[in-house]
Amino acid sequence: MILITGGAGFIGSNFVHHWLAGHDEAVAVVDKLTYAGNLDNLASVAQRPDFSFERIDICDRSEVARAIATHRPRAILHFAAESHVDRSIDGPGEFIRTNVQGTYELLEATRAYWSSLPPVERDAFRFLHVSTDEVYGSLDDGAPAFSETTPYSPRSPYSASKAASDHLVSAWHHTYGLPTLTTNCSNNYGPYQFPEKLIPLVILNALDGKPLPVYGDGSNVRDWLHVEDHCRAIERVLELGRPGRTYNVGGKNEIRNIDVVRTLCAILDELRPDPAGSHERLITFVKDRPGHDHRYAIDPTRIESELGWQPAETFETGIRKTVRWYLDNAEWIARVRDGRYREWIDRQYGRRAAAEGADR
Ligand code: NAD
Ligand code: DAU
Hints:
Elements: E1 2-5, H1 10-22, E2 27-31, E3 51-55, H2 61-71, E4 75-78, H3 85-90, H4 93-115, H5 119-124, E5 126-132, H6 157-176, E6 180-185, E7 188-189, H7 198-207, E8 212-215, E9 221-223, E10 225-226, H8 227-240, E11 246-249, E12 254-256, H9 257-271, E13 283-286, H10 301-307, H11 315-328, H12 330-337, H13 343-359
Parallel strand pairs: 1-2, 1-4, 2-3, 4-5, 5-6, 6-11, 7-10, 8-13
Antiparallel strand pairs: 9-12
Helix pairs in contact: 1-8, 2-4, 4-6, 7-9, 9-11
Bound molecules: nicotinamide-adenine-dinucleotide and 2'deoxy-thymidine-5'-diphospho-alpha-D-glucose.
């Protein structure tokens, strides 16, 4: 079986669905269920015998070690993180705690388990760390895309905390021999993304006739990849990647933010026309993000040539599917927006915490 941290978030939950649809191997999810963790994302697999969930903070090493000892995974896939750049600017502390301290605790719990495995299982074991292209910093227009040898140059508290976690993973490989793999991926979009990130935020605001906030002049460039393609890349790296190696993942879809927003408006004009006029009328340029990275671009040559991965979606096909998903999942959106997705969590885990308190 495989153990996934952060499996109730956007990419982690997509990965759980992807894995269970294509593999005859069980999945255990470990997730703290922060504001970004949503069990609705996993509702359709929650009752399956090959799926289990534990609410655990990765900073709690003894709980993580207990979960690993219980499930005895052949691989641990580490998605759990604080992931939103704007929140990291507002309050960096949680990013240092989860992304740096949490990764350290997880690595140590994993190392103890891995060291105790019989030799054949120890050789086959993998720790896959899911990271970001933001660790490489910002590119000027026309500069070559990030490769695996681009020096790290993180510029936000989020990317600095992810860079630190990448270095820890690398050190645990070189020092202790832990068979690690790291993926550095560009911007994802798709189902189940929390509507604080650009694409779901714009779709939801447009449907509500609210302003579509574009930071600065909208000329910043991101390299967009459909989340399913990211999941396929992670699967490929897990199966075929060489321990100690890092793999850049990206779809060669460099687009300016303003063009992403205009594309979303055009699709919504077609699929959900607004009698008040084109959704483009809602575009509003707002104050820029402090330290806003200008451009990210990924050179995916290594994962393409060594592991045979290629994205299946273009931006045009993926973004249309994504808009349709949000239009077809109004209940998911409503529960995220009015906070109902947290009610069950609070009832379930609040009650459990109260019972545990009474036991003590
Ligand atoms: P997300 O914010 O949607 O989900 C993060 C998940 O981690 C949530 O379920 C949350 O509850 C959980 N979590 C947070 N702190 C935790 C803790 N202390 N213990 C246990 N669980 C905790 O994030 P995402 O967009 O799905 O990103 C997943 C991973 O992929 C992150 O490591 C992120 O850095 C990386 N990544 C994201 C993107 C992107 O475009 N979203 C691109 C490249 C890499
Ligand atoms: O590159 C990978 C990274 O992509 C991941 O590591 C991060 O976890 C993920 O959040 C994402 O980071 P970004 O900061 O690029 O994503 P976000 O959706 O927040 O913003 C995308 C671009 O759009 C960015 O240039 C900022 C801009 N933006 C964002 C928001 C939320 C706006 O113009 N308006 C907005 O309201």
